[in-house]
Structures are given as C-alpha cells and as structure tokens.
C-alpha cells in the first residue's frame, strides 16, 4: 500500500506515496511537525503541529483518505 519515495535520518523530511483515491503522497518533517498532503486532484494541503503518531496512522491506515478526513483535516491548523 505505501512505498517510500525518499527517507532521510530521523527528524528529517520523509516523503511517501500513498495508495488512495484521495491522497497521492505526503511529506512530513518530524522536527517542525509539518505535514504536507498532496491530493490526487492536484491540490496541496499543509498542516502544523501534527504528531508523528498521527502520520504513522495515516500511512498504516486501510483507507488513508478516510483517516485523513477523520483525524487530520479540520483537527490541525492549516499552514498558510
């Protein structure tokens, strides 16, 4: 379901492709807790203060799109 595109050492940005009808890929910076979500419609959403555990849940979810809608969207402040 999930395939790493690029991983660096702990605390650095990790980019991951996602097998989802809604989400194409995500990028996460553990140090700043900044999550970037690339949607399949070409839009990009960015969120501040997202804990690593939530990002792990997103990548492990049976339905990453449902997880995103329930656990991330509207729960964390968007990054301008």
Provide structural commentary.
This is KTSC domain-containing protein. The structure is a single chain. The termini are far apart. Helices cover 21% and strands 35% of the residues. With 80 residues, the protein is α+β, with helices and mostly antiparallel strands. The chain has 2 helices and 5 strands, in the order E-E-E-E-E-H-H.
Any descriptors?
21% helix, five-stranded antiparallel beta sheet, KTSC domain-containing protein, disordered N terminus, 80 residues, 2 helices, alpha+beta
Query: What's the number of helices?
Result: 2
Radius of gyration: 11 Å
* Helix and strand sequence: EEEEEHH
Structural class: alpha+beta
Poorly predicted runs are 1-11
Strand order of the largest sheet: 1-2-3-4-5
**Anisotropy-based shape:** globular
Q: What is the residue-mean pLDDT, rounded to a whole number?
A: 85
Distance between the termini: 30 Å
Strand content: 35-45%
Structure summary, number of beta strands: 5
Protein name: KTSC domain-containing protein
Organism: Rhizobium mulingense
């Amino acid at each position: 379901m999930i395939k790493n595109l690029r991983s660096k050492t702990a605390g650095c940005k990790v980019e991951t492709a996602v097998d989802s009808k809604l989400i194409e890929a995500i990028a996460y910076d553990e140090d700043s807790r900044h999550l970037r979500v690339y949607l399949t419609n070409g839009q990009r959403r960015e969120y501040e203060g997202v804990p690593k555990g939530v990002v792990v849940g997103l990548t492990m979810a049976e339905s990453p799109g449902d997880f995103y809608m329930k656990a991330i969207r509207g729960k964390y402040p968007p990054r301008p």
